[in-house]
């Protein structure tokens, strides 16, 4: 897979270099986005959504949700015109908009909502299905979720990008063509229809003239995989792409000096951290809290922020974005290599140790190299191991990554939704569990008193920080290069979202 990605990047690079002096004119009404990762088929189907923001780069274009993050707020009614909650907190009832349709002309009904929920198997699926007693079709345009017990986090998990459970798929169409055919040729209810998809290379979308919110201004949207950052920058300069995602500080600064090119840098919900999956092994050096703290104090977060994000990211000591409901404010750990070396000596590792692989979330190899250099300075020796993105997530989810991981997630929600995938027994990326955290998490989930819930979620976040279960790095800024044809890139319009959106608001000059 990695070899294939390199070949794709090389082919794209040759095309760009061949046309560097004069880019071919883009077809009228077409906007092309250079994507920093390899496009994979599973992102076209919300049914298996990861606990990360990347799939929503595609989902916002092709699909629509009952409720989703939009410029108006974190829980904005979309396919649902409105919803109500019973006084006892056990029933959530959604009223669907009139006249909404899937791309194939079928109406979006309560049947589709129920089918979508039952079919969903992505992040948070077990938690949601453990909490929901029944999904009832009240009328073709009305659906009711009945919980087993009051659960105040229902909308944080169901109505945000914490999961993909509310992104509705067509029951009749999937039952007609089958699951495999649907994944190859998905039908959604979003602003764009799939025209063509070459996995790993390019996704071509066409405006949906019947989209309920508005007809998209950009008639054709092309997402093109250009994993190599230098190649992606060249494509912005030559006009072969209109928007390029994710540039490190040096290339972002170079692009900013080019006439007609702008740099946009949305501040994301994405928190990056150094994870210690071996800490759950009593024989591992990482089992010692002093060693984990030493590693955290050895990291020069300011330098990484400047190099990666032009200093536009925010340093943090928390695993939860500060704007999230129930977020506990924690100061970022200081850069203190002297204290780090002292802790290593106290823990019995004065001469350091071989920590094995340091595997970063692709494509953040440069962040891993910087962290590895910082750790080397206190005697912790690592080897940066890069992986193809799909293989990385499979290995992470199957708990096969060892040594160190640089993880990240930009999914929305609240503090509970952010903590669940990584620190609870059912969390899809949790390598181990602190019993005290599990107890607090289960108790807060059933607590209706807001102040008491807040106290318990604060306790969980404090345990994560005090025991250095992870070492937070920063809240990410996400530099784009925006070319001269773009009138409205929508950068940062949806708070905390890294990509274009709402895509129906994109505009060309």
Describe the structure.
It is built from 17 helices and 20 strands. With 509 residues, it is an alpha+beta fold. The protein has 3 domains: 2-39 and 199-266 and 478-508, Periplasmic binding protein-like II (D-Maltodextrin-Binding Protein, domain 2, 3-Layer(aba) Sandwich); 67-173, Dipeptide-binding Protein, domain 1, CATH 3.90.76; 268-477, Roll (Dipeptide-binding Protein, domain 3), CATH 3.10.105.10. It has a 7-stranded mixed sheet, with helices on one face. A 5-stranded mixed sheet has the order 15-14-16-13-17. The protein has a 4-stranded antiparallel sheet with strand order 4-5-7-6. The longest helix is centred in the N-terminal third of the chain and has 17 residues, at 2-18.
Describe this protein with a few key phrases.
single chain, 509 residues, alpha+beta, D-Maltodextrin-Binding Protein, domain 2, Dipeptide-binding Protein, domain 1, Dipeptide-binding Protein, domain 3, 7-stranded mixed sheet, 5-stranded mixed sheet, 17 helices, 20 strands, disordered N terminus
């Amino acid at each position: 897979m990695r070899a294939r990605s390199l070949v794709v990047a090389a082919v794209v690079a040759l095309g760009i270099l061949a046309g560097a002096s004069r880019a071919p004119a883009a077809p009228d009404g077409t906007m092309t986005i250079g994507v920093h990762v390899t496009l994979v088929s599973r992102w076209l189907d919300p049914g298996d959504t990861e606990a990360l923001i990347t799939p929503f780069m595609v989902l916002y274009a092709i699909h629509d949700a009952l409720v989703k993050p939009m410029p108006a707020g974190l829980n904005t009614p979309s396919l649902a015109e409105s919803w109500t909650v019973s006084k006892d907190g056990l029933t959530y009832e959604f009223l669907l908009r009139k006249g909404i349709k899937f791309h194939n002309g079928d109406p979006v009904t309560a049947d589709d909502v129920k089918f979508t929920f039952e079919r969903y198997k992505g992040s948070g699926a077990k938690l949601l299905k453990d909490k929901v007693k029944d999904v009832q079709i009240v009328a073709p345009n009305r659906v009711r979720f009945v919980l087993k017990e009051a659960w105040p986090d229902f909308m944080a998990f169901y109505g945000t990008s914490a999961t993909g459970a509310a992104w509705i798929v067509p029951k009749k169409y999937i039952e007609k063509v089958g699951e495999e055919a649907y994944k190859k040729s998905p039908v959604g209810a979003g602003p764009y229809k799939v025209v063509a998809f070459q996995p790993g290379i390019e996704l071509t979308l066409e405006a949906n003239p019947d989209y309920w919110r508005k007809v998209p201004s950009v008639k054709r949207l092309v997402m093109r995989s250009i994993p190599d950052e230098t190649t992606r920058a060249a494509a912005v300069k030559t006009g072969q792409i209109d928007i390029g995602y994710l540039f490190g500080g040096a290339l972002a600064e170079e692009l900013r000096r080019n006439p007609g090119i702008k740099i946009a840098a949305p501040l994301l919900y994405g928190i990056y951290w150094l994870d210690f999956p071996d800490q759950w092994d009593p024989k591992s050096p990482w089992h010692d809290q002093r060693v984990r703290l030493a590693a955290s104090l050895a990291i020069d977060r300011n330098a990484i922020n400047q190099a990666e994000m032009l200093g536009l990211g925010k340093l943090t000591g928390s695993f939860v974005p500060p704007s999230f409901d129930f977020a506990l404010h924690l100061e970022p750990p200081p850069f203190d290599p002297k204290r780090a070396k002292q802790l290593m000596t106290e823990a019995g590792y004065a001469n350091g140790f071989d920590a094995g692989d340091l595997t970063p979330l692709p494509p953040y190899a440069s962040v891993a190299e910087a962290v590895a250099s910082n750790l080397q300075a206190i005697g912790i020796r690592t080897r940066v191991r890069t992986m193809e993105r799909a293989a990385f997530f499979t290995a992470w989810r199957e708990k096969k990554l060892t040594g160190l991981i640089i993880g990240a997630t930009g999914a929305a929600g609240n503090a509970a939704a952010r903590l669940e995938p990584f620190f609870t027994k059912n969390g899809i990326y949790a390598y181990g569990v602190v019993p005290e955290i599990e107890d607090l998490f289960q108790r807060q989930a059933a607590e209706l008193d807001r102040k008491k819930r807040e106290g318990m979620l604060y306790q969980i976040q404090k345990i994560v920080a005090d025991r250095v279960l992870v070492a937070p790095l920063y809240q990410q800024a996400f530099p784009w290069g925006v070319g001269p044809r773009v009138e409205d890139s929508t950068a940062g319009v949806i708070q905390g979202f890294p990509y274009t959106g709402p895509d129906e608001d994109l505009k060309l000059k």
